[in-house]
Write a structure and sequence with these properties.
With about 270 residues, this protein is mainly α. It has ten helices and four strands. About 75% of the residues lie in helices and about 5% in strands.
Length: about 270
């Protein structure tokens, strides 16, 4: 099977599962919890060479980080849906500070590096997926429209920027990190997304047409930024992909790098300005 066909089949299945699961609250919870766990596990894998830990402590950290990030998402979802009170969120700082305590017993020669990498996994993956709940829950009720709209905008921007950039691009956007990304592709993606953003206001009416337009502009900038940040991380580690679980697409972090990065900014906009 050709690489293109493999990539296409995986992409279609990936989109179908994401959209299908997102329509239902239970599907959303299971899907994002699994994505959070996979992304955290991949982040641990790609940074393991930087760590200074004995094998048994590495296993503890891996499980602890995955549990903390997934639990953060689940508790936040339960809080936003009205199942749990806000006091249960207080367990998250306890789990995070527990990582410092484990480091006391690991006898590592590079404790600050280990702690920094652990905190990075929480900040880079755990917090964004937890903040996603502030987007999809409206007054305690699950509302998939905004999530589906954001997913569509992220996917369309990525495709539009790639196609336009490959056809008309000549000026690198960030040559030091990602030579193939161009200004032409980014601007073209922005124009496509602006038109689509205005259109989504008539399809997903949880937000107004203008609010969808603003979100499309946020995605156009921060989606590209998230992709560049992921490229920076991979380049610094000397790797091409964060994993190989998705044939033709790499790992979960490779597919969710832009989505992870846009969530905090969209959540901030929706919470404070809509």
């Amino acid at each position: 099977m050709s690489t293109f066909l493999t990539r296409a089949i995986t992409g279609v299945l990936f989109v179908a599962i994401m959209v299908g699961a997102s329509y239902f609250q239970a599907g959303y919870i299971v899907l994002i919890a699994l994505v959070t766990a996979f992304c955290t596990n991949e982040f641990f894998d790609i940074t393991v060479s930087l760590r200074d830990e004995k094998p048994k402590y590495a296993k503890i950290y891996r499980i602890w980080l995955m549990a903390t990030n997934v639990l953060g998402f689940l508790i936040t979802a339960a809080f936003m849906s009205g199942i749990l009170s806000i006091k249960f969120i207080s367990i998250l700082p306890v789990l995070i500070f527990g990582l410092f305590i484990v480091e006391l017993y690991s006898k590592s020669e590079k404790p600050l590096i280990n702690i920094g990498l652990n905190l990075s996994a929480f900040v880079y993956i755990g917090i964004p997926f937890s903040m996603l709940n502030f987007i999809v829950y409206k007054n305690g009720f699950y509302s998939p429209g905004t999530l589906l709209g954001i997913l569509i905008l992220v996917w369309v921007y990525d495709s539009a920027a790639y196609i336009i950039g490959s056809q008309f691009g000549s000026r690198p956007l960030f040559k030091r990190i990602s030579p193939n990304k161009t200004w032409e592709g980014s601007i073209g993606g922005l124009l496509v997304l602006t038109a689509l953003g205005f259109s989504l206001g008539y399809i997903f009416q949880d937000l107004s047409t203008l609010e969808w337009a603003v979100i499309s502009w946020l995605i156009a900038y921060f989606s590209a930024t998230g992709d560049l940040v992921e490229s920076l991380i991979k380049r610094s580690l000397g790797i091409k992909d964060t994993g190989n679980i998705l044939p033709g697409h790499g790992g979960f972090l490779d597919r969710f790098d832009a989505f992870i990065f846009v969530i905090p900014f969209i959540a901030f906009y929706i919470i404070c300005f809509t």
